[in-house]
From TrEMBL, chain A:
GO terms for biological process: phosphate ion transport. PROSITE patterns: ABC_TM1 (PS50928). The keyword Cell membrane applies. It is a multi-pass membrane protein. NCBIfam families: phosphate_pstC. Residues 94-310 form the ABC transmembrane type-1 domain. InterPro entries: MetI-like, MetI-like_sf, Phosphate_PstC. This is Phosphate transport system permease protein. Keywords: Cell membrane, Membrane, Phosphate transport, Transmembrane, Transmembrane helix, Transport. The chain crosses the membrane at residues 37-58, 90-119, 140-158, 170-189, 221-242, 292-314. The lineage of its organism: Bacteria, Bacillati, Actinomycetota, Actinomycetes, Kitasatosporales. The keyword DNA-binding does not apply. Its main location: membrane. It is found in: Cell membrane; Membrane.
TrEMBL record, chain C:
Belongs to the binding-protein-dependent transport system permease family. CysTW subfamily. The gene is pstA. It is found in: Cell membrane. It comes from Streptomyces calidiresistens. Residues 7-21 have a biased composition (Basic and acidic residues). This is Phosphate transport system permease protein PstA. The lineage of its organism: Bacteria, Bacillati, Actinomycetota, Actinomycetes, Kitasatosporales.
Length: 322, 322, 324
């Protein structure tokens, strides 16, 4: 040990006693770079997908708007693209979609939020340990299943419960809305429950310490504190409802676009139009083919706005609590 | 600083201990710090006021037999625009235990992390000045940070074993270096070196996280020395441990000195006094609301704890500071 | 201070805003609670409290009953057709008694096999890049992140349009084959898998990374040998949930050629194919009652499979959730 290493000033001299390992890389790590490149490519793929979506929507949409004016498309009240003298007013199917969304939210928000508050604030630990995963499992019920349930059970049931309504045919946009509502209940419940639970316990305890009761703490402390997370849950559910296809296709039917606002009758929505028209083979380049993409573009834009709003809310919520 | 108040009393005791432990490995420096002439000064640049060389300050000493591992020349570390620690110049000697002490926020951990380029992992971090390792600039263009970390190991504040078996924890380092043969021997040697072998030899396959805190930290030390580094950096290795585990680690650190150069950051001044040969005291300077760490005094541990040259050191040691 | 430094690596949130927001909430909470203190507590109060919890329970009860009703209904209605033919016989338009889902089940297996083969490397790869390699200061990395979050909310039918334009026709030009279905569904569930994998990777504490890097492991060695094994259960959960979603998805496949009646067993790269949910949809649209029963029996099969898969995924996640 006392043997001097005076030579240590020059790095090459390291070999004299204990050979010192060089500080430069033994060999260039090309593999590392290749891997990083591949990983970056995986991530960039998502951008490619978005671009591909935009391109695949826009190209035929531009073709469509060469034949149909934008104004006619957005303000027309007749939708019959399949006919020889087709009408291309998109409003009826937009209204169909919005009807479904509104009814679905009317069903799902109260049920979902009440469930969330119960699970987050009231449920004993053991109950929660069972119910929360159960809700998550139910979140995975396929839409075809809910659609069949709506068509074969809810629709006849609705006719029995509300016999005074003007039931006609096998389909009903109102029942479709309720079925979509069932679909999004678990989503609203579990996302807003997460939001409420990530409200720091200190806030609750502080309120309890001041003598507030449970209801007051839930409604006046926890709920407002979690509000942006809860709104995000609702907005996410809304996006899901706008884009839902199979349930509306089954329960509201693929045809009959109308502006009648009659919940007891079938009505076409945007997604149902796309799904119903585009099954398999249709002649490329025709106006009808292009209509699918024009409606798709509108759908994409609507969900884009809603999604960006939801993403903002979730970010804000996370900044505050996580 | 919670530990400060005991310092003056216990200062006496640990100093002896420190000297004892030093004796077998390094008979010279601590015992005969006083006599001698300042022969080593010739090659040094003394332009920095903080450039403190212990032996020279006391009128010289046999400095040249202590080989320098690190030579820090006006090293500053900044995070973004904030300078965390500034203008540090000091030498770290081979097979010595060098302690970095000082109040919170004085940048001692930051400085430690730039000795094996761990600060490279913080995107905003920047190191100015020169960190010379055996004559080679650690931040030179041809130096590979990955290679640096193989030669200069690190033990962290909180024990951080990998969530895998004890054996795999120790074998991880050698395996990444491409070593395949005699892994059992390497693991055993490292575990013996970390004074852990007897406690874990019958359960090498159990998860590293199943050990107690002190054992986990010794496992981390075993893991660090399994790659046979030259230097082991320790960032408050005992701060998460109870007193008994702390004593074990301290014993171990003293043993490790036979083979390794150790730089240890500690909040605990008795610990610095008990284990280290050299102590650097850092302080915080506040200007315009920004706190920057600076090196106040660097000297033999004995000197720092008995007759510090700087008033701030004395205040800190005797508990009249922060 | 030292831990603060370690965490700085992963923490770049605006702290200021966080504090003010928290303070605001704390004040609101204290005020609300304070009101409780000064209003006299009456019997009426206790009644509303009890009533409130009853309403909450009712809400949850409705949700659970409605959703489990689907399973119960499928069990009752579909039971009569839950026979061997359902699985072994091909589709038929004439004889519903002897028709089944054979080709659709095989189609689903093919399509889902392709989905798994695609989403595991692509999804995990993207997640690793974003969590471990990407410099968040760079605009393009933030853009990728935002883009993935948005894609997760794009309606499935839009992915069908993408598949039709780019995979079936256009660039890929695969035609209406199972492979096209696989790719379309893979793109659809990829964002979900990426988001879940990122969560799992993020949950691995930075101390594990630091420990590994300090031993001279490269970033990729660290990720491959230490981070990924620790994140594996979480990633697996994400992959399984993604696969489950792909199994139940029908809408995009309507556009990429999952045609109704495939009489012969399908193959991956050529010939028509169908999948279980699309076949169910088509049976449900037929006028005859017998086909409806068969469709419901198909739903029952799908429900059972998906419930099992989802339960496993959620069990897996809950089991490994808190390791540190």
């Amino acid at each position: 040990m006392t043997a001097s290493q005076r030579g240590s000033v020059s790095p090459e001299a390291g070999a004299e006693e204990t050979p010192r390992r060089p500080l430069g890389a033994a060999r260039p790590r090309h593999g590392e770079k290749v891997v990083k490149g591949f990983l970056a490519l995986c991530a960039a793929l998502s951008v490619g997908v978005t671009i591909a979506i935009v391109v695949s929507l826009l190209t035929p949409t531009i073709g469509f708007f060469r034949e149909v004016s934008v104004v006619e498309f957005l303000t027309g009240t007749q939708w019959s693209p399949g006919f020889a003298r087709g009408e291309f007013g998109v409003l009826p199917i937009v209204v169909g979609t919005l009807t479904v969304v509104v009814i679905a939210l009317l069903v799902a928000i109260p049920i979902g939020l009440l469930s969330a508050i119960y699970l987050a604030e009231y449920a004993p630990r053991r109950v929660r340990a069972v119910i929360k995963p159960a809700l998550e499992v139910l979140e995975g019920i396929p839409t075809v299943a809910i659609g069949l349930f709506g068509l074969f059970l809810l629709r006849p049931l609705a006719e029995q419960i509300f016999p005074f309504m003007n039931w006609r045919g096998d389909f009903s946009i109102g029942v479709a809305g309720v079925a979509v509502g069932l679909l999004i209940v678990p989503l609203i419940a579990s996302v807003s429950e997460d939001a409420m639970r990530s409200v720091p316990g200190g806030l609750r305890e502080g309120a309890y310490a001041l003598g507030a009761n449970k209801m007051r703490v839930s409604l006046r402390v926890v709920f407002p504190a979690a509000i942006s997370g809860i709104v995000a849950a609702v907005v996410l559910a809304m996006s899901r409802a706008i884009g839902e296809t199979m349930i509306v296709l089954l329960v509201a039917g693929a045809g009959n676009p109308n502006l009648s606002f009659d919940l007891a009758r079938g009505a076409q929505t945007m997604t149902a139009y796309i799904g119903g028209t585009a099954t398999g083979d249709i002649a490329t380049g025709t106006t009808v083919y292009n209509t699918i993409f024009a409606v798709g573009s509108l759908l994409f834009l609507m969900t884009l706005v809603v999604n960006l709003f939801a993403i903002r809310l979730v970010r804000r919520f996370r900044e505050v609590y996580e | 600083m919670t530990t400060d108040k005991d310092a003056p009393i216990s200062g006496e005791m640990p100093r002896n201990e420190g000297t004892d432990a030093t004796a077998p490995a390094d008979p010279g420096p601590d015992a005969d710090g006083g006599p001698g002439t300042g022969g080593a000064a010739g090659t040094e640049n003394l332009d920095s006021p903080l450039h403190l060389r212990p032996a020279e300050l006391r009128g010289g000493g046999e400095v040249e037999h202590r080989d320098k591992v690190f030579e820090l020349r006006k090293v500053s570390v900044s995070y973004g625009s904030h300078r965390a620690v500034g203008d540090v110049s000091m030498d770290v000697f081979q097979r010595n235990i060098t302690a970095l002490i000082g109040p919170s926020g004085c940048g001692k951990s930051t400085l430690l992390r730039c000795l094996n380029r761990m600060n490279d992992l913080v995107p905003s971090a920047r190191v100015d000045g020169e960190v010379i390792y055996h004559g080679e600039n650690l931040y030179g263009p041809r130096v590979d940070p990955v290679q640096v970390r193989k030669v200069i190991g690190m033990v962290f504040q909180k024990p951080n074993p990998f969530p895998k078996s004890i054996y795999d924890n120790v074998a991880f380092g050698p395996r990444t270096m491409g070593i395949k043969q005699n892994m059992d021997d390497i693991v055993e040697e490292a575990l013996r070196g970390a004074a852990l072998w007897d406690e874990v030899k019958d359960k090498l396959t159990s998860n590293g996280l199943s050990l107690s805190g002190g054992q986990q930290q010794r496992l981390c030390i075993a893991r660090a020395i399994a790659v046979k580094p030259e230097v082991v950096l320790m960032d408050e290795p005992c701060s998460a441990l109870d007193p008994i585990a702390t004593l074990k680690i301290e014993d171990l650190i003293r043993q490790l000195k036979d083979e390794y150069t150790i730089v240890i950051v500690t909040h605990n001044m008795q610990q610095a006094a008990r284990v280290s040969d050299m102590t650097a005291f850092f302080s915080v300077r506040t200007s315009e609301g920004k706190r920057t760490g600076e090196l106040v005094e660097y000297d033999d541990t004995e000197k720092i704890f008995s007759t510090p040259a700087d008033r701030r050191t004395e205040d800190y040691i005797s508990g009249r500071f922060g | 201070m030292t831990t603060g430094e370690t965490q700085k690596i992963r923490e770049d949130r605006p702290r200021e805003r966080r504090t003010t927001e928290r303070t605001r909430l704390a004040v609101a909470g204290a005020r609300a609670a304070g009101q409780g203190l000064y209003t006299p507590r009456s019997a009426k109060h206790r009644v509303t409290n009890t009533l409130f919890s009853a309403v909450l329970f009712l809400g949850l009860g409705t949700a659970l009953v409605a959703l489990t009703a689907i399973i119960g209904w499928a069990l009752v209605e579909g039971w009569p057709r839950l026979d061997a033919n359902l699985f072994l016989a091909g589709p038929s338009t004439i004889n519903p008694e002897e028709a089944g889902f054979r080709t659709a089940i095989i189609g689903t297996v093919y399509v889902i096999g392709g989905v798994i083969a695609l989403i595991v490397p692509l999804g995990v790869g993207a997640a690793i890049y974003l969590e471990e390699f990407a410099d968040r200061e760079r605009w393009y990395n933030r853009f990728i992140e935002l883009n993935i979050q948005n894609l997760a909310g794009v309606p499935s039918i839009v992915f069908g349009i993408l598949g039709l334009a780019f995979i079936v026709r256009g660039l890929g030009n695969f035609g209406f084959v199972a492979a096209a279905g696989s790719m379309t569904l893979a793109l659809l569930v990829l964002p979900t898998v990426i988001l879940a994998s990122r969560e799992a990777i993020r949950a691995v504490p930075s101390s594990v990374r630091n420990g590994s890097l300090a031993l001279g492991a490269t970033l990729w060695q660290t990720v491959w040998r230490n981070v990924l094994p620790a994140a594996a259960p979480g990633i697996l959960t994400g992959v399984i949930l993604g696969v489950a979603r792909a199994i139940g998805e029908a809408a995009p496949l309507l556009l990429v050629g999952a045609v109704t009646f495939v009489v012969y067993d399908p193959s991956f790269f050529e010939g028509g194919y169908s999948v279980l949910p699309v076949q169910i949809y088509n049976y449900a649209k037929r006028p005859q009652e017998e086909f409806h029963v068969m469709a419901i029996a198909g739903v029952l099969v799908m429900l059972v499979v998906l419930m099992l898969i989802n339960s496993f995924a959620i069990w897996l996640r809950n089991r490994y959730e808190k390791k540190w």
